[in-house]
Design brief:
The chain has 455 residues and is mainly β. It has 7 helices and 26 strands. A 6-stranded mixed β-sheet has the order 3-1-14-6-9-11. Strands 2-4-13-7-8-10 form a 6-stranded mixed β-sheet, with no helix packed on it.
């Protein structure tokens, strides 16, 4: 959830900064130009690597420079003391954090002399802990390096309208840190919380979105957050909204996705940055996007029918297929009320809903041939695809034959036994692949009812 704002800064600013021991040049907040502006009781989670460009020299920073650093900027809204306590995530006395403060109202490239700095090493100074910071009991403004000092220097009497750069550096160790503001000065508020102020946004739920972009089964589809952006801003002036793939990108405002972008496959976490463009204060939110495909339909069986004379020729391999039969198969387990099912001669036509076939389809070229099916859920907009094969089977050869049988039982009543199977080759033309059944009427033959024995 987005954090509610608070004008006091005597709150905990947790900077979960994972700083590694190699140098990296980029857009991480380890350079002045990529500074993170601190507002309200903001909390940040960052991965920061190395120092970027070396911007400190030992002559103005307590005989030290950047090793693994992060740059912060504080803008004073109400006058008071600027003080903080920095606590490493590890209690090991070997974790050594330094800091340097420049200001008031200096600019990148011209930061001048540090007005506060501490480069005391807690192990060398035999400290009982590894904390450092500003407080109102100390009187010195700088200390270090090594055993010199106790890791704390005097608080700053800050005036409304002033701004300061705070550089946090870790020359030794690998632990993240937390920063607790303990002075009386206040920072500007974060932008308004849209979850509290927008009549359109009561929450930011996860989004379940169908793959509605060809090829439809790669779980990558177009995401349009234009309306969500408008709802979040809700008419506020000087507010910018951006979407990012990582919390780190959102915090340092790089690699925005735009309001319309293609999703990652299956699941993607989106981080929203809502920034006041005047104060540069911002808040973050996040939600997950789940991309799904329409797959809960039944796979239709292949469709085989016999050639018929509906076109005047029962031997040309052309016949009429009723695709309603396949629609019933496809929606057997999901119901067909909210689904549109259409049939095509190519996957491209199906994907683009182009040149749909009639439900009663008469083939014009010989089969077998693949038919492509487009299934669309009208409630969700999900689209799925499948195929089946149509085939027109030849009508087997069937010759009319007659058989004469003498009444040989000595009783001239006209009844005798016929062995019809002896006529099988005459009926089929000698085709061994044809199965023949016998009936006493055309009606029984049409319905395959009451077959008789052939011998």
């Amino acid at each position: 959830m987005i954090l509610s704002t608070n004008q006091t800064i005597s709150k905990l600013l947790v900077l979960l900064v994972l700083i590694t021991n190699f140098y990296s040049f980029g857009q991480d907040p380890n350079d002045c130009q990529n500074v993170i502006t601190i507002c309200g009781n903001s909390s940040l989670s960052l991965d920061v690597s190395g120092i970027g460009t070396q911007e400190l020299s030992g002559s103005n920073t307590c005989a030290s420079q950047e090793n693994n650093s992060i740059w912060l900027q504080v803008n004073i809204a109400n006058s008071g003391t600027l003080a903080f306590t920095l606590t490493p995530g590890s209690t090991s006395i070997n974790e050594d954090y330094d800091f340097f403060i420049f200001g008031p109202n200096v600019t990148c490239g011209n930061i001048g002399q540090a007005i506060r700095c501490s480069t005391t090493n807690p192990t060398a100074a035999n400290q009982g802990n590894n904390l450092t910071g500003l407080n109102t009991t100390e009187t010195d403004t700088s200390e270090g390096p090594g055993p010199n000092g106790n890791s704390f220097v005097s608080a700053i009497d800050a005036l409304a309208g002033e701004s300061y750069f705070i550089v946090i550096d870790r020359p030794i160790g690998n632990s993240p840190f937390s920063l607790e503001w303990t002075g009386t000065a206040t920072f500007p508020d974060n932008p308004s919380n849209p979850l509290l102020n927008s009549p359109f946004v009561t929450e930011l739920p996860d989004l379940d979105i169908c793959d509605s972009q060809a090829p439809y089964d790669d779980f990558i589809t177009e995401i349009d957050l234009t309306q969500l952006t408008q709802d979040i801003i809700n008419g506020e002036s000087d507010v910018a909204v951006s979407y990012h793939n990582s919390e780190n990108d959102a915090n340092i405002n790089v690699n925005p996705l735009g309001n319309i972008f293609n999703s990652f496959p299956v699941t993607q976490t989106i981080f929203i940055r809502i920034e006041n463009t005047i104060t540069n204060c911002f808040i973050l939110n996040e939600f997950d996007i789940f991309v799904t495909a329409l797959t809960n339909f039944s796979q239709p069986t292949n469709f085989e029918i016999c050639d018929d004379d509906s076109d005047g020729d029962e031997t040309n391999g052309l016949a009429t297929f009723d695709f309603n039969i396949k629609s019933q198969e496809i929606t057997e387990n999901i119901g067909s009320v909210n689904y549109d099912i259409s049939y095509y001669l190519s996957l491209s036509d199906a994907e683009n809903a182009n040149a749909a076939l009639p439900t009663l389809y008469s083939n014009t070229v010989l089969t077998p041939r693949d038919i492509f099916v487009r299934i669309q859920d009208n409630d969700t907009g999900c689209i799925g695809f499948t195929t089946f094969t149509i085939r027109v089977n030849e009508i087997p050869e069937a010759n009319d034959v007659s058989v004469l049988q003498c009444d040989e039982d000595g009783i001239p009543e006209g009844f005798t036994v016929f062995n019809i199977n002896q006529l099988l080759d005459d009926i089929t033309g000698g085709n061994p692949q044809v199965n023949v059944d016998y009936y006493l009427s055309q009606a029984d033959a049409d319905t395959e009812s009451n077959p008789i024995e052939g011998d």
